[in-house]
Methyltetrahydrofolate cobalamin methyltransferase
Amino acid sequence: MIIIGEKINGAIPSTAKAIAEKDADFIRNLAKIQTEAGADYIDVCASVEDSIELDTMKWLIDLVQEVTDTPIAVDSPNVHTCVEAMKYCNKPGLFNSVSLEGDKVDIAFAEIANTKWECVALLNSDKGIPKTAKDRLDVFIDLMAKVKEYHIDPSRIHIDPLIEMLCTSEEGISMVTEVIRGIKEQYPTIHVTGAVSNISFNLPARKIVNQAFAVLAMNAGMDSFILDPLNQDLMGMLFATEALLGEDDYCMEYIGAYREGIFGQKK
Amino acid sequence: MIIIGEKINGAIPSTAKAIAEKDADFIRNLAKIQTEAGADYIDVCASVEDSIELDTMKWLIDLVQEVTDTPIAVDSPNVHTCVEAMKYCNKPGLFNSVSLEGDKVDIAFAEIANTKWECVALLNSDKGIPKTAKDRLDVFIDLMAKVKEYHIDPSRIHIDPLIEMLCTSEEGISMVTEVIRGIKEQYPTIHVTGAVSNISFNLPARKIVNQAFAVLAMNAGMDSFILDPLNQDLMGMLFATEALLGEDDYCMEYIGAYREGIFGQKK
């Protein structure tokens, strides 16, 4: 189970404010508390104007590295920003993200091929977001051809099957679980990742939907999660699900995470 | 989704105290609040000495029927108590429970055969609780022979596959989900039920394990739940899971239950 802490993202209003005001302590604290909460990667996404994106990324990455050794996920829709931001990182992290749009995947894979960097890859292409499981798995096949071409081990790839909002669906999440299962069947060592909270857009009591979705997605094979690791109920749900799925003998990891205060401690 | 409200049970200390003190208001309130929280059945289990069990059941059932029309689940390990308690009920309810131990199933099925009563049936026999999925499904086959013999429609049966504590398991819940799937494959209209909280005995943060289990059990086919309907997080998880599994178009039931205050309202 891989936790990608999502809180240092300019799309989140409080983080955007800290970025605008150059509030270094706020950013350092987000890196620290996410590490303590069990994050395996600290995602860093500036979400600012292009002209200042790279400077902002450098400022954020430097701050994170002042307080934690947890590797960084360099996160931008602009593949060139990710490539440049890699250079500010003290150790290999997570390239977030590529897709089959344009030449993104070639630019990214050429950079990470002979490194220990891992990479998030989204299942969209120049044709947009595929509507059916079959079409998404076709994009996956094309993507894996690129992974092979650059001699990247599948275990370094985190496939994001693209989680869409539940409220407009008539079939629940059957399409995305079919995609997840299809990916893991073909490449058992690959990771499947996603932003859990996308599922609950426009619904009330979103946390409940997010939690139930995380359980079902993990059951289908998702093993990498982009989320707020301070959300104790969600973190607890992931540890409980690992135990329920038989991946945690005698619940030792579940009990250990509870004792470390990762969940079940706050009201 | 069928909710069997479990709170009127002498095994729960506060309920035991109310029974001992003949606190009628306490019992009536439990019936009322469970109905408001969405219970489809109000379970009534005395858990007292044999000599006063039937009188206690009558007292409890009368109190429940003073305040709600929700059908009653007559609950006792003694099949004769259940048979007698049926007579106190104003309308058909749920016989909880039978198993293949001794002549239980014949006594119970003879009583309910030509009625609208439904029945919980546990997958144990005179040989005890089967250890493997295959052995449990063998008990299920024997049980369904009895269901057929008494001309009871499978849709009136709630099979309890027997949920055991996770903490002593090395394989998680794979055995019980295999049993649930096997039951539903053979009889799509049958119900699968269980006491959700059994799963988390001896673990910390039990509510989290219960919630994750409920999601996975529903995913496998469980559609009847013996639980505390006042547990808003657990109720919310069931509604969210129905939506995620594609059984709730556009999340209308989820949103409706939220608006009715069944979940997401209390902190």
